[in-house]
Specification:
Number of domains: 2
Structural class: mainly alpha
Number of helices: 16
Number of strands: 3
Radius of gyration: 33 Å
CATH superfamily of the largest domain: MetI-like
Order of helices and strands: HEHHHEHHEHHHHHHHHHH
CATH architecture of the largest domain: Orthogonal Bundle
Strand order of the largest sheet: 2-1-3
Largest sheet: 3 strands, antiparallel
Strand content: under 5%
Length: about 425
């Protein structure tokens, strides 16, 4: 007969299993709380870094969204305008005469003195008057009110980026120039309207005239070429690999290489494009067609992976039901599986294009960082892109480009957020629950 006796109770041993479970449960709960704390801390840290990044960009870049202007009444002197070629008139002299009315103590016939006064105006001020006269020759002989931009130092002065209390030797604007600008300000001629030229004008050597139009259109053409090439090829490759290709070592090797290509640094694609598209094929440098081809090589692996994942998410019952009613393999894929997978495919495509929009290194290698003062009219014209334009402005020594660099980054982020928002909308709008 077996003698069943209670376990010996010791100080280190619990009386029942319930106490052990309670201790284990409390220990697990503490670990769970610690793990949740690490997760929340990581999220808060990421949000904090995001706030710091966006805050620094906004605090620096908002100055570029306004531009200092002077409102001047300019007499269009017929003697200074070439009647046969209106664009060749001496519009600088007309602007100098208009400014000289506010400084009677300055001899505007003296070139040195006149230069000290007219340095307030940007080089683009003459273009404003010239374009108005060319478009409407009846202005000749009349006094017309123009709003013309100031030069960058006085734009910085008006925005408070040039400290008046700073020693004169350390300022780009001397005391006499500040005094003349204050005279114009007291006369009510100075204003700081919204700087629409930031979007409507192309690049310029002068910060007050530089804009993003050329870069935006260049990015558009490059992304269009990228989409036209990568979208059909990427989807076709994914459909073949997922639905038709035999499962063997060759297909496995292709799949591994596609996954590896998605992780290859973008600069490698730039070197490839430089050697193949420009070196071998002789395609034009700085052209969106080459940039689009380069970005297509980068985007295609992402589209293939996203498309294969979307095809896999379609339940096998859809395929089996279609085959059961007599559909061929091709009909099953293109009439049933592909339409159901299209929301995921479009989402992956848009995300891939958004990634391509922000790439800089490959575009630098193919020369899309040239100084282009006009927007491209097609994919074969020389152009820049938004990332390369940001790179150019960040490398410029003029102080006015500092705020424009941050403003351009904000514009690029706006486009990226918009594209990602479209991807989220498509996913939520057309996604089906199985």
């Amino acid at each position: 007969m077996t003698d069943i006796t209670p376990d010996r109770v010791t100080p280190d041993r619990p009386r029942t299993n319930t106490e052990a479970v309670k201790r284990s449960l409390a220990r697990r709960n503490r670990k769970q709380v610690v793990l949740q704390g690490f997760g929340i801390s990581a999220i808060l840290f990421a949000l904090g870094m995001l706030v710091i990044l966006v805050g620094s960009l906004v605090s620096t870049g908002y100055h570029a969204f306004t531009q200092t202007h002077l409102e001047l009444e300019v007499f269009i002197d017929p003697e200074e305008v070439d009647a046969e070629n209106l664009s060749r008139g001496d519009y600088g002299t007309m602007l100098a005469a208009s400014l000289g009315e506010y400084f009677p103590d300055v001899d505007m016939t003296d070139r040195g003195a006149a230069r000290e006064v007219t340095q307030i105006l940007s080089d683009g001020a003459q273009r404003v008057v010239r374009d108005a006269v060319v478009s409407d020759p009846t202005l000749i002989g009349q006094t017309v009110t123009f709003r013309v931009p100031t030069s960058d130092p006085f734009d910085q002065l008006n925005k408070g980026l040039v400290g008046r209390e700073t020693a004169e030797a350390n300022r780009r604007v001397n005391d006499a120039a500040i005094a003349r600008f204050d005279v114009l300000d007291e006369a009510g001629l100075v204003s700081a309207p919204l700087n629409t030229a930031l979007i409507t004008r192309a690049d310029s050597r002068f910060p007050e005239l530089a804009g993003l139009k050329g870069a935006i259109i260049g990015s558009f053409w490059a992304l269009l070429v990228c989409f036209v090439i990568s979208f059909p090829l990427g989807i076709g490759a994914a459909i073949y690999l997922e639905e038709f290709a035999p499962k063997n070592r060759v297909s496995d090797l292709i799949e591994i290489n596609i996954n590896n290509l998605a992780a290859v640094p973008s600069v490698v694609f730039g070197l490839l494009a430089l050697a193949v598209f420009i070196g071998w094929f002789g395609m034009p440098r700085s052209a969106p067609i080459v940039g689009g081809l380069t970005l297509a090589l980068m985007t295609m692996p992402t589209i293939i992976i996203a498309t294969r994942a979307a095809l896999k998410s379609v339940p096998p019952s859809i395929r089996e039901a279609a085959l059961g009613v007599g559909a061929s393999k091709q009909q099953v894929v293109f009439h049933h599986v592909l339409p159901l997978a299209m929301p995921g495919i479009l989402t992956g495509t848009i995300i891939g294009l958004a990634q391509a929009l922000g790439e800089t290194a490959p575009l630098l290698l193919i020369g899309m960082n040239a100084f282009i003062t006009s927007a491209p009219s097609g994919p074969f014209d020389s152009a820049t892109a938004l990332p390369t334009q940001i790179f150019i402005w960040a490398d410029s020594p003029e102080r006015g480009f500092v705020s424009r660099t941050s403003a351009a980054i904000l514009v690029l982020l706006t486009f990226l957020i918009f594209m990602n928002a479209i991807a989220i909308y498509l996913r939520n709008r057309f996604e089906r629950k199985w």
